[in-house]
Amino acid sequence: MSSNLSAIELLNLGNEGRTKPVLNEYWPYLLGTFFGVGTGLIINFGTRRPLMSGIQKHIIGVVGWTSLFTYVTNKREEYLAEKDAILRHYIQLHPEDFPVPERKKFSEVLEPWVPVR
Prior knowledge:
Helices cover 64% and strands 0% of the residues. The chain is mainly alpha-helical. Helix 2 packs antiparallel against helix 3.
């Protein structure tokens, strides 16, 4: 894939050739489990019961937190997809505002170094 793509070409690529990182894929389940069990432990600690008693509290906490985090993840992905669609549409309407960037050598980007002593 060339790094010299126009803005519309970059947006049209979408998720082609990309995979979701493992942590992004499983974070709702990991955090849901951690927060759910933690919620049960805190409730039991606050009511002065054995920490792992009332396993239904832990299960309900895990299901509740995992559902919440999954919902938030899905809403975030919908928002980002809509944002990309809006950007894609704007770039299609105004291509003159998004010229293809010219390629530069790394030496052209850096400024000359002058040591200060």
